[in-house]
């Protein structure tokens, strides 16, 4: 028992900001206990940003606004949470202006004392509200207010669209980082234009500089090409950095969303095989690797093929028909191999999922396997699954090697 005869159950350890958020949700018509809100936190620090994340998980909308003066707040937008100094908070439910000098009775509601007051709910006494002087509250106010609202209930035909909207959780995250990929595209434009400097430099040197023994011109051209290549190196480094930043941030957000979906999943929706679920979550690493690898940069560079074809046509004229004739052949061959490679990739994915599921279930049920003396049977199952997985992976690699 603690000092003074207090027991741990008699002490409230709940963060005050969560109690304020619970009171605000109750005033908004959606009762959420502080314990429920605490379970939705992803870290040990309770901040305004963490409260917004918890509120959004609960189906609410919210934002943190900077409003330095309490007198400028409108009663139409209340209640809201006021962030006070010393990591304290309260729920502001109403502002009561003071009575002006010489005001007649029967007018607008005033405090009755001539001083502006605010009706607030403190987390220590969340069940009751009290009036405090507005000036005293302004001294403790940090200037930030947290607003939470309950969105309107959708109609039945709109409710059916929830599943379709949920499919956008992946692309919405990538669309959020689209400005970074626009920087990558701009860098790719300049890099591909710089790539034209090498053939133009060689053509001018062999056609004009060498026959005329123009050493000064050669030095000028060489200096310009060196400067261009330095810019090319810098732009390539920046482009790689941008792709890494976007891929890393997207990976953090997507991983957080995936784990959040797993934790909030209804138990009846849980797959029977835990290993399969773990394998599906792990396979999302390949998407992160794509959005931060050279494959994405290669996809961005594809449109610049037109620029090089125009350059070949400008310099060599009819020679441009050779790459133009080869392009449909290469594209057709790639599409043909893609069909077979996709089939092999699907088989390999299924076999890997079964292998991972079997491994997890063997480890979790190791005591049962030993008690039933089923080691040999599980060994045969493992060898069969591994053999099929290795066969599918090898076949998929053959198709990949056939198309570099």
Automatic annotation (TrEMBL):
Membrane-topology annotation of the record = Multi-pass membrane protein
Task: Provide the species name.
Answer: Desulfovibrio piger ATCC 29098
Q: Name one GO molecular function term.
A: peptidase activity
Q: Where are the transmembrane segments?
A: 184-206, 218-238, 296-315, 321-341
**Gene Ontology, cellular component aspect:** plasma membrane
Q: Where does this polypeptide localize?
A: Cell membrane
Which Pfam families does the record cross-reference, listed alphabetically?
ABC_membrane
Q: Which residues form the Peptidase C39 domain?
A: 10-148
Looking up InterPro entries in the UniProt record yields: ABC1_TM_dom, ABC1_TM_sf, Peptidase_C39, Type_1_exporter
Residue runs in coiled coils: none
Q: Which residues form the ABC transmembrane type-1 domain?
A: 184-403
Predominant subcellular localization, coarse grouping: membrane
Q: Which UniProt keywords apply?
A: ATP-binding, Membrane, Nucleotide-binding, Transmembrane, Transmembrane helix
Say which domain of life the source belongs to. Bacteria
Keyword ATP-binding listed? The answer is: yes
* Key word Transmembrane present: yes
Q: Quick one: a GO biological-process term for this protein? A: proteolysis
Q: What is this protein called?
A: ABC transporter, ATP-binding/permease family protein
Listed PROSITE patterns: ABC_TM1F, PEPTIDASE_C39
């Amino acid at each position: 028992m603690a000092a003074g005869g207090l027991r741990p159950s008699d002490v409230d350890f709940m963060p005050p900001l969560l109690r304020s958020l619970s009171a605000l949700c109750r005033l908004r018509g959606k009762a959420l206990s502080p314990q429920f809100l605490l379970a939705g936190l992803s870290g040990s620090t309770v901040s305004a940003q963490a409260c917004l994340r918890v509120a959004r998980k609960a189906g609410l909308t919210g934002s943190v606004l900077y409003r330095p003066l309490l007198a400028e707040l409108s009663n139409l937008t209340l209640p809201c949470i006021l962030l006070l100094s010393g990591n304290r908070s309260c729920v502001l439910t109403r502002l009561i202006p003071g009575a002006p000098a010489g005001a007649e009775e029967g007018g607008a509601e005033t405090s009755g004392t001539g001083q502006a007051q605010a009706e607030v709910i403190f987390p220590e006494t969340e069940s009751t509200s009290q009036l405090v002087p507005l000036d005293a509250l302004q001294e403790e106010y940090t200037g930030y207010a947290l607003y939470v609202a309950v969105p309107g209930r959708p109609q039945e035909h709109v409710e059916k669209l929830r599943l379709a909207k949920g499919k956008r959780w992946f692309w919405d995250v990538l669309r959020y980082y689209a400005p970074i990929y626009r920087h990558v595209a701009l860098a790719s434009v300049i890099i591909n234009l710089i790539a034209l400097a090498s053939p133009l430099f060689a053509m001018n040197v062999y056609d004009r500089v060498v026959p005329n023994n123009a050493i000064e011109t050669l030095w000028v051209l060489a200096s310009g090409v060196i400067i261009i290549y330095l810019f090319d190196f810098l732009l390539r480094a920046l482009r790689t950095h941008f792709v890494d930043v976007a891929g890393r941030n997207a990976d953090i957000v997507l991983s957080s969303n995936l784990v959040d979906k797993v934790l909030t999943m209804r138990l009846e929706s849980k797959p029977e095989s835990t290993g399969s679920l773990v394998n599906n979550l792990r396979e999302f690493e390949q998407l992160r690797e794509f959005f931060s690898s050279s494959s994405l940069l290669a996809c961005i560079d594809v449109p610049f093929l037109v620029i090089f074809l125009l350059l070949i046509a400008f310099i060599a004229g009819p020679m441009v028909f050779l790459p133009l004739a080869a392009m449909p052949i290469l594209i057709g061959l790639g599409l043909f191999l893609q069909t077979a490679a996709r089939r092999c990739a699907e088989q390999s994915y299924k076999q890997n999922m079964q292998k991972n599921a079997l491994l997890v279930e063997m480890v979790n049920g190791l005591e049962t396997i030993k008690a039933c003396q089923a080691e040999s049977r599980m060994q045969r199952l493992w060898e069969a699954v591994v053999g099929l997985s290795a066969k599918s992976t090898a076949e998929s690699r053959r198709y990949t090697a056939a198309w570099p």
